[in-house]
Amino acid sequence: MLPKYVRDFLVYLTAIKGKSQRTRKEYEYDLRLFLRFQIAISHDLDLDKMNEVDLNLFTIEDLQQLTLEDLYLFLEYCEVKRGNGAASRSRKVATLKSFFNYLKSKKRLITQNPADELEAPKLSKKQPVYMNITESHQFLEGVEHSRHPERDYCMMTFFLNLGIRVSELCALDVDSVHDDILTVRGKGDKERNLYLNEQCLEALSSYIKIRSRYLQVSGEQQALFLSQKGTRLTRQAISNLVRKINQDSGLEKKKLTPHKLRHTSATLLYKSGADIRSLQQILGHSNISTTQIYTHVENKEIQRVMTKHPLNKK
Fold first, then answer.
1. Catalytic residue among 19, 92, 151, 262, which?
2. CA distances (Å), origin 129, targets 37, 163, 237, 245
3. Which fold is adopted by the domain 4-105?
4. Active-site pick, 91, 185, 187, 243
5. Is 263 a catalytic residue?
6. Per-residue pLDDT tens digits for 248-269
7. Which residue ranges does the chain devote to CATH 1.10.150?
8. Rounded to two decimals, what is the model's pTM?
9. Domain Core-binding (CB), which positions (predicted)?
């Protein structure tokens, strides 16, 4: 069982900070690993067997003795022994900073915060993977091979036109739709309204006409997108579906996932003239710096712009 101070922190994350259950589970995983590592180090235990330790062995007094160097040692272990990349370690830094800030400012269990000066690993700026407009059309054509073409075409259309997250798509209910407005519940339980364009409305209309096929007496009644068994579709089921459509379409785009479809939507919107603030609102980003990864421009486009420079003339 987790120590009470960890359990209290996890409750605080969801009840007060409004974090999702998924985020809470990620924080819990990080803290379990962190405490086990600290116990193993302090008791000179084999790190390969640290999953067997009792987490309650790490007391509040032990917390008070932790230093910045202890935290860096943990991150080094994550990198060297567990093979965690910069993104994974950066998340662990965020977990530790949030956790120790809570212990100091909210619970008053520690007087010095060892994570105050903790730095996150530098992340390389990766360009988001996305499909161009031709590839997007080819991908959608792959839906015709699906066992549930109306439903699947509607979901893929929502991904590519609205840029919603897979978790947001799974959570949609029938009453999420109001005429041409879709109400989406995003991260932190925040709601935003998205405009359904003509393609979305046509796809939705076709699906709604046959949705009753999926309804079961004992199944889900409110979910917009239903499985063959009448249950709400899961993230994994939709991820598997995206992979199958990718293959059936003949596109076979490398590592295509629902999140890559979101990248595609955002990139195509930006290229068609969407300003950064509008894009931020559509995607449901709380920080505009997250949105800015979609403002990349391909090298060929840069070359074309530079070629047209007025001074590039003899």
1. 262
2. 35, 14, 21, 17
3. DNA polymerase; domain 1 (1.10.150)
4. 187
5. no
6. 999 988 889 999 999 999 989 9
7. 4-105
8. 0.65
9. 1-104
